[in-house]
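User: quick one, sequence for these tokens?
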């Protein structure tokens, strides 16, 4: 009996290990910059005060951009919305346009260029730069409503998670959170978790990763396209 409890504990530990921290990943400013200083990992994206938006205490700003959104005759949940947060927040780094902080760490929020990303920055040559044309990407910033799908994808109905009014699509591989005031908006973070590094072998080297495992910040292991079929159940 004791042994079983011990093994269960070990398993729990192994599972929670899969959700390792953002520290040391390509989203850690200390990995982006070889500055020789210990920069503040979270400050690259969040600030405890004076944030641009209440959730998730966002610290990066950029001039508003116009994004071309995904279109398709079989896209039934299509609403032709503008790109919404938190997807716009991803794009402050992944669209090839300069961005800086609202509130720099340290006294008086003195500008520290190490936290800025400028369009002449050598970082951009290493970036996954998606530009502002999102037509060739999985649709985002639409209301997730399985009742509108006429193509029989078998999308699961979202379930409430937590007490804050949030909802998520729950599949066999993982949980895919929805965003916005109604907790029903599909965004980049529905598939990606910027903080975590669910990884799986066999997809080649992710940039700046030496372990030979894929990183991609996915919500779930996508080997065998298992993440895709958590939502597109009948495909
Ligand atoms: C590269 C940008 C980035 C960095 C760096 C980052 N975050 Fe986030 N964080 C986000 C985005 C985008 C969201 C909103 C999407 C989501 O909930 O995943 C978020 C959401 C959150 C949330 C609310 C949702 C949740 O997962 O609990 C917390 C808490 C949070 N971040 C804490 C942190 C802390 C603490 C650090 C530093 C150790 C950190 N973040 C570093 C981008 C970042
Ligand atoms: C502070 C800037 C910043 C923000 C904000 C940011 N990223 Fe990144 N991201 C990077 C950098 C730098 C890398 C490493 C270089 C690269 O691969 O693009 C990276 C890498 C990635 C990768 C892995 C790419 C690869 O080939 O290894 C994914 C996936 C990704 N980001 C998704 C997101 C998503 C989704 C969001 C929003 C939820 C986001 N990022 C927000 C800076 C950022
Ligand atoms: C339907 C799920 C899904 C959505 C929504 C999604 N992604 Fe991804 N993303 C993925 C998967 C899966 C990969 C890994 C691609 C692969 O296997 O080649 C990926 C890869 C990436 C990469 C690395 C690309 C590369 O070639 O290095 C970046 C950066 C990225 N996503 C950012 C974003 C941003 C920003 C958004 C929102 C505008 C977004 N993603 C929306 C599933 C998604
Ligand atoms: C969290 C749920 C979810 C995940 C995970 C997901 N999708 Fe989707 N996907 C959707 C929804 C919802 C739509 C919009 C469907 C509609 O309205 O017709 C969509 C749209 C699409 C479309 C365009 C459909 C059209 O009619 O134009 C394709 C193709 C697609 N997804 C492929 C993928 C692939 C490949 C993956 C895995 C990398 C994936 N999806 C992961 C929910 C998801």
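Assistant:
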């Amino acid at each position: 009996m004791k042994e079983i409890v011990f093994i269960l504990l070990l398993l729990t530990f192994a599972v929670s290990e899969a959700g390792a921290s953002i520290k040391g990943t390509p989203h850690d400013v200390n990995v982006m910059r070889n500055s020789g200083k210990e920069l503040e990992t979270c400050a690259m994206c969040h600030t405890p005060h004076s944030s641009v938006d209440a959730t998730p205490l966002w610290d990066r700003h950029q001039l508003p951009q116009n994004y071309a959104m995904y279109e398709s005759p079989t896209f039934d949940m299509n609403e032709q919305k503008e790109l919404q947060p938190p997807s716009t927040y991803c794009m402050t780094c992944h669209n090839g346009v300069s961005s800086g902080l609202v509130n720099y760490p340290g006294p008086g929020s003195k500008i520290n260029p190490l936290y800025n990303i400028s369009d002449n920055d050598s970082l951009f040559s290493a970036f996954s730069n998606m530009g502002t044309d999102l037509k060739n990407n999985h649709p985002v910033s639409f209301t997730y409503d399985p009742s509108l799908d006429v193509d029989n994808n078998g999308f699961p109905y979202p379930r409430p998670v937590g007490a804050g009014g949030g909802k998520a699509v729950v599949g066999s591989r993982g949980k895919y959170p929805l965003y916005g005031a109604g907790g029903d908006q599909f965004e980049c973070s529905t598939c990606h978790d910027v903080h975590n590094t669910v990884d799986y072998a066999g997809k080649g080297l992710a940039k700046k990763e030496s372990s030979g495992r894929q990183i991609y910040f996915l919500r779930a292991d996508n080997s065998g396209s298992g993440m895709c079929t958590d939502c597109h159940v009948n495909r």
